[in-house]
Amino acid sequence: MSTSTTSAPPPGTQEPPPTRTPPRRGRPPTRTGWRRALRRDWQLYSLALLPLLFFLVFRYLPMIGNVIAFRRFEPGGSMFGEDWVGLRYVEMFLSDPTFWQVFRNTLWLGGLTLVFCFPIPIVLALLLNEVRRRALKRFVQSVSYLPHFLSIVIVAGITMQMLATDGPINHVLGWLGHDPIRFIQEPEWFRTVYVGSEIWQTAGWGTILYLAALTTIDEDLYEAARIDGANRWQQIWHVTLPGIRPTMITLLILNVGTFLAVGFEKVLLLYNPLTYQTSDVISTYVYRTGVESNSFSYAAAIGLFEAIIGLVLITSANQLSRRTVGTSLW
Q1: Whole-angstrom Cα distance, residue 131 to residue 208?
Q2: Which of 55, 71, 80, 113 could anchor a disulfide with 59, C-beta 3.0 to 4.6 Å?
Q3: pLDDT of 157
Q4: pTM
């Protein structure tokens, strides 16, 4: 009877490791697609449904109506105009001296609003950040935030009552021996009145974003600055302001984008025919031309021109910010 024997490897040699069969290449693991993410987090995505519908209905769909800037629109006719007229209405407002007066007023109001209303919330946030008494800080915040929650109609009404000929401000001027000033009827006072009311209404609310940005600054940076001998002003300049710079740049780009979109409601409530020389802006001129005079195509052409200028401004500001400070919206 024969028995099978396995030959052992010679002494001093190692047995080679067993060869492993390479695994079969199957299907690579798929990344989580948008459908799977939608099924998993559908509750969160559903919260964005109403805002998306709002922008779709009230922001994007009305853009279709810009076609009447190049077509002759007649009330009661086609919604998209009757006849193609090309750039006729564009040439009309470009050659209209009233439009250029309105355009200059818009630049003045937009520039003054940007120059005064943008830095004041930053200064107020820095001052509030230095306040150590919580009761005082909360009181100042509450008083400064309150005007934001008032309707523009109420803000305009308070402004007109305060600046009326027999209002409190003129009473104080009378006690000082000054004649009453017609703030609401004098064209040279309108820009001051508008910018002042805008500061009062928006300065407090604008500090919220900057106060939130201040909380993200590392306290170790202040400690290192104090060790190096920096005083409070130097700490603000070298630590605080660089820490909130991204927030400042983002808000500045957004404000530049709405440079020409000066508040329509407030201007409409504060101005009157006596102050058209300095108060009439593009938005109010479009309203009077389109709604009151029924020149819808002409008003659409002016509105389209304003939108294009705003798009150019926000794109240019974004590119400039990206190249200079490295911060941009996109």
Answers
A1: 15
A2: 55
A3: 92
A4: 0.78
